[in-house]
Design goal:
The chain is mainly α. It has nine helices and two strands, in the order ααααααββααα. Helix 6 crosses helix 8.
Length: 273
C-alpha cells in the first residue's frame, strides 16, 4: 500500500512487514518445489484465513455467511482445478452456490437475499479466484508459473510502496484509498514489468516482452483488486479486516492484489507461454 507520506507516517511497521513477507515467501517456495500438493495446502490455509476475515467483517453489519461450507467449497475448488482443470473448477463453484443457497434457506426468510448475496460474493471473492492458482500449478512448469505470478504481483506492492513514500504527491482515489498515489502506481508498473520480464525469460524461457506485457496487466489488476478491498472495508466501516500479519494487517490485505491478478495472469501465460 503506497503512501504520499514517508517515514513513520506510513503507518506500517516495515521490519515486521519484511519479516512476515520473507516467512510467507519461504513457505511458498519450499512447498512449491518440494510437494505441489503441499503448496495447495498453504493456499487453502491462507485464503481460508481471508475468507474467515471477510465473513467476520460482514458479521459486523449483521450479514450472515456460513463459513464452514464456504471453506469446504474453497477446498473443493482448489482440488477440482488442480486435478480436473477449468471445467471442474467452474462446476464445483456452480454446485457450491446452489448448496449454499439451500443451506441458507433453512435459516429462515428474514435477510435471505442479503445473506445469500454476501455468501456468493465470498465464494467468488476470494475463493473462486484463488482456484485459478491450481490451474496454473497443474500446467507444465507449474511451480515456475506460480512464482512468476506471485513475484510479479508482489512487485506491484513493493514498487508502489517505495515510490509512493519517496515521490507520492498526487492522490489516485482520495475517497476510496487516500494513501494511493499516481506516483506509487508508476512505481508499481515499473517494478511489475521489470520482474515480469526477468522471471518470464529466466524461468519459462520465453521472450522478455511477454513478461513485460504480463507485468503491465498485473499492475492494473492488482491496483483494482486493492481498491475493491478498500471499498469493501469502507462500506463495512473498518480499517483492516484483522491484524493477523504484523506490518501487513489482515490476510485479505495481502490477498486482494493476488486474487485479482490471478485470472489475467493465468490467461496470458496459457496463451503466450
Amino acid at each position: 500500500m503506497e503512501s504520499a507520506a514517508g517515514g513513520s507516517r506510513t503507518g506500517r511497521n516495515l521490519p515486521a512487514a519484511v519479516a512476515v513477507g520473507a516467512g510467507l515467501g519461504a513457505a511458498v517456495i519450499l512447498s512449491l518445489y518440494y510437494v505441489e500438493e503441499l503448496f495447495l495446502a498453504v493456499v487453502l490455509v491462507a485464503v481460508g484465513a481471508g475468507v474467515v476475515e471477510l465473513v467476520r467483517s460482514l458479521a459486523t453489519r449483521d450479514i450472515r455467511v456460513p463459513v464452514v461450507p464456504v471453506l469446504a467449497a474453497l477446498a473443493a475448488m482448489l482440488a477440482g482445478g488442480y486435478w480436473g482443470g477449468p471445467v471442474w473448477l467452474v462446476g464445483v463453484f456452480a454446485t457450491a452456490l446452489l448448496v449454499l443457497m439451500i443451506w441458507r434457506m433453512f435459516a429462515g426468510t428474514e435477510g435471505y437475499v442479503r445473506d445469500t448475496a454476501a455468501t456468493v460474493l465470498v465464494t467468488a471473492y476470494p475463493a473462486l479466484l484463488a482456484g485459478f492458482v491450481a490451474l496454473l500449478l497443474a500446467q507444465d512448469q507449474g511451480p515456475d508459473r506460480v512464482v512468476v505470478f506471485i513475484a510479479t504481483t508482489v512487485a506491484s506492492d513493493i514498487g508502489g510502496y517505495f515510490a509512493g513514500v519517496l515521490f507520492g504527491r498526487h492522490k489516485m482515489s482520495p475517497v476510496i484509498s487516500p494513501k494511493k498515489t499516481w506516483e506509487g502506481f508508476a512505481g508499481s508498473a515499473l517494478a511489475c514489468m521489470a520482474v515480469g520480464g526477468w522471471l518470464t525469460a529466466w524461468l519459462l524461457e520465453a521472450e522478455v516482452w511477454k513478461g513485460v506485457l504480463i507485468g503491465a496487466v498485473v499492475v492494473v489488476a492488482a491496483t483494482l483488486g486493492d481498491l475493491v478491498e478498500s471499498v469493501i472495508k469502507r462500506d463495512l466501516g473498518i480499517k483492516d479486516m484483522s491484524s493477523v500479519l504484523p506490518g501487513h494487517g489482515g490476510m485479505m490485505d495481502r490477498l486482494d492484489s493476488l486474487v485479482a491478478a490471478l485470472i489475467p495472469v493465468w490467461a496470458l501465460l496459457t496463451l503466450l507461454v
